[in-house]
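Changelog-adjacent note: as of this version, every example in the card shows the full chain rather than a window. The one below runs 532 residues end to end.
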Amino acid sequence: MTVNLGDVLERVAQAVGPDDPAIICDGAATTWSTFDRRSNAVARALIAEGLQPNSKVALYMRNGPAYVESLAATFKGRLAHVNVNYRYGGEELLYIFDNSDAEAVIFGAEFAEQAAALMPRASNVKVWVQVGGATIAGAQDFAELAEGDGSPLGLKRSPDDIFLLYTGGTTGLPKGVMWPASAFWAANTAARAPVVGSDPPATVDALMDQIKSGLGRMPVYVAPPLMHGTGLFSAINALTKGGAVAVTHNPHFDPEQTIAAVERHKCGALIIVGDAFARPLLDTLRATKGKYDITHVRSMTSSGMMWSPEVKSGLLEFMPDAVLADSFGSSEGTGLGMSLVSKDAPPAEARFLAPNTVLIRAEDHSIIPPGTGEVGMVAKKGDLPLGYYKDPARTEKTYVMIKGERHLISGDHATIDADGTIKLLGRGSHCINSAGEKIYPEEVEEAIKTHPAVFDALVFGVPDPRFGQTVAAVASLNAGASVNEAELIAHVRTQLAAYKSPKKIVLAAVTPRAPNGKADYAAAKAIFADVS
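Full-length structure tokens:
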């Protein structure tokens, strides 16, 4: 299908009831008619400032109605959404604005100080828009823009209109994955099924009929940040099914607040990221047993991080009719596989059911037959992004032509069982995944080594029961130098976002490296384990 997300959202607004909720935030609902009007008005205001089709609009804010409205505005206005990790420091933010060629930045009031500091330096940005608070000099008021002319824009949109999803990835600086609307739509077909595992509508017209019937429409509580792929994709999928996106302004995940909102708004689906969210939810449900009723929940999906079988079993006690899904995908290619658990299919070690476009390939790109036990790399063909924005070299390494067909080589090691299910073994690099955040070890190593006392450092992930992994390091000092662990961690936090800083640093006589200078991570982990 040739689909544009802006066109779809316009049709959804006509198919739903005007007073049906589109966004729910901390108990307050924005109706579909209001959402439609405000997103039109924001799009029109940005275009009036000179933005053209595929001009980049960076969204620098936490979860809330303004994020969802701004996202819809980019689709409707033929503008390209750029997600911004609000945990980044000034230099990291500037890199995203510059690398993406952002012409507009919509930022939350809590980030006004950072935005003001970047205004003179982000020379490509034409428009700064502030959400909430007293608007700073040089910025426009989002509330005023959203109350402008909210009539339909009347644009002829293209299925090739793109949006950008910046990902920390496994190597180097963040990269902007370019998703054309039609490719994203096709890759996420299964997300528009009325219930998990059922058949999705085959056409947009059929989807509209589904929406008008009320089938599959429900509020979806999105717990992770919308500025990450899991939250962003989940919000888009909920809206394009005529449902509502439920979020909170709370800057920190509050499990009881989440459970209360799911109960209050009768959310039929809950989006999380692994045990970092699932364990606190289960602990809270057990501690408050009988206080909340979430038996109406029909699906709970985790993406970006695996969650453990024992936690799934515990959650099914409180939502017995739910399907718990591990979604295997990445910013570079969604829909790589799904692992489903229910009361009739008890939790076990996850095996992913993959579409026929996903294969396991050896280093020479030959297909590994099912049941051989041979380890290969996950590869997907079919509906894929265009590549990385302004980075043809990385694009060529990630998206590979094999026998005339373009494939994503995901970087995940895996085996394929005789029944065609995939078992993931881990990333092909040393990328650290902490609560869904991808952390590049070399970046943290360099930050440690900027301390004058440090000679060398290696950074790696260590298992954590809640976050999957946490950041750890082994460092050696210059002769005669002295520094303690707390000082080093504090120093890293002046260089990078706090979540990238090590939780523990072991000081060693030597940082282990091979004779050719390459890092010996296995030896570093052994040193860390001996001291810890």
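Structural remarks: The chain has a mean pLDDT of 92.
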